[in-house]
Specification:
373 residues; alpha/beta; Quinone Oxidoreductase, Chain A, domain 1; Rossmann fold; 2 domains; 9-stranded mixed sheet; 6-stranded parallel sheet
Length: 373
């Protein structure tokens, strides 16, 4: 289900809202409020990890809890989250294994990207009314000493955009394509998960750089969306024969593959690469909920003969590029060169369903949980 939002000129055509989320919007409205006029404490809610899932997570793996927040003390600030992000990488944090992000602990509140408004501040670096970003999502509000919180000065888009096109997904697309894959003008680029938060931006950045762009998606609606934002060729991977579809879309081969999927997509891309091609390994969502090993590419030998470069990356390790990203992406968004779409769920209680929906392709563009206006 979609809803027109002409007032938000930065969005593409609409902001998708799941029917379930829309029905629940009023019953799960944010509950942040002060308990009394003296502002001594306030009620809020947070989501905690209840179980470590096997396979695809379910709502039973999350627990919604009421909490009471004390009034901020000296050097602290109180933030109400306006929107929070759910992202595929979070599935790894549900496992008790060593990774680049620490695992969530059973019974503890989870963390993720969020944008909020400062309600009250006794911190010298923040004032009431400031728009801020943090990694303290999965909760309606929090009190902090300011560690890990950044003020969003002079925003050029609605707050939720700083979780997507102007946030981590946007920077992932920018860093992965322009620096990890070292894109050159006029090349042919293939991106999997092309209608997602990252993939849709990879395609548009490549078009800005004068490249031919091929994308794979999972539905006819997503084919239409990618064509509308400039992709030259888009196909539905459910039709099968990935190597054949890719060959027909890029008969002269690929210079760059931006991998969000892994598995059969990576294998098909390896078979289509030109000499000196580059593969930016961003994600492998085909593996995230697997209960048995997902077959990897059996044609890796092609990397030798074709002199290919395969390089994985974690965007948080490239903070030196943030200023460049914010400068360029802000300009592209305000000029209309880059468009974006959000799929929104309403209210913290719907965050688990939003997260689970990532693995069934429920989102076009960035998946957002809207918490407050």
């Amino acid at each position: 289900m979609s809803r027109g939002i002409a007032a938000e000129r930065w969005l593409d055509e609409s902001c998708s809202i799941s029917p379930t989320a829309q029905q629940a919007a009023t019953s799960f409205a944010p509950t942040v409020h002060f308990l009394n006029e003296s502002l001594s404490a306030m009620n809020s809610r947070e989501l905690r990890l209840k179980n470590r899932p096997t396979g695809t997570p379910s709502a039973a793996d999350f627990e919604l809890a009421d909490v009471t927040l004390a009034k901020p003390g000296e050097g602290q600030l109180l933030v109400q989250n306006l929107a929070m992000s759910v992202d595929p990488y979070m599935r790894g944090r549900m496992r008790d294994v060593k990774s680049y992000s620490a695992p969530w602990q059973i019974g503890e509140v989870m963390q993720g990207g969020a944008v909020g408004r400062v309600l009250e501040s006794r911190h010298p670096g923040f004032a009431a009314g400031d728009l801020v970003s943090s990694n303290l999502g999965w909760r309606e509000a929090f009190v902090s000493d300011g560690a890990g919180i950044s003020r969003i000065a002079d925003p050029v888009a609605p707050p939720s955009a700083y979780l997507g096109v102007l946030g981590m997904p946007g920077m992932t697309a920018y860093v992965g394509l322009l620096h990890i894959a070292a894109l050159k003008a006029g090349e042919t680029v293939f991106v999997s998960g092309a209608a997602g938060a990252v993939g849709s931006l990879v395609g548009q950045i490549a078009k800005i750089r004068g490249c031919t762009v091929v994308g794979s998606v999972g539905s006819a609606d997503k084919i239409e969306y990618c064509r509308g934002i400039g992709f030259d060729h888009v196909f539905d991977y459910h039709a099968g024969d990935l190597p054949g579809q890719l060959r027909r879309a890029a008969p002269e081969g690929l210079d760059v593959y931006f991998d969000n999927v892994g598995g059969d997509h990576l294998q098909a891309a390896l078979g289509a690469m030109r000499v000196n091609g580059r593969l930016a390994l961003c994600g492998a969502i085909a593996n995230y909920n697997a209960t048995a090993p997902v077959p990897g590419p059996n044609n890796l030998m092609l990397a030798i003969g074709q002199s290919l470069t395969l390089r994985g990356f974690i965007v948080s390790r490239h903070e030196d590029l943030r200023a460049d990203f914010m400068r360029d992406m802000s300009a592209w968004v305000t000029s209309g060169q880059v468009k974006y779409r959000e799929t929104r769920y309403e209210g913290l209680a719907q965050a688990p369903q939003a997260f689970i929906g990532l693995f069934s392709g429920a989102n076009t563009g960035k998946m957002i949980v809207h918490l407050a206006d």
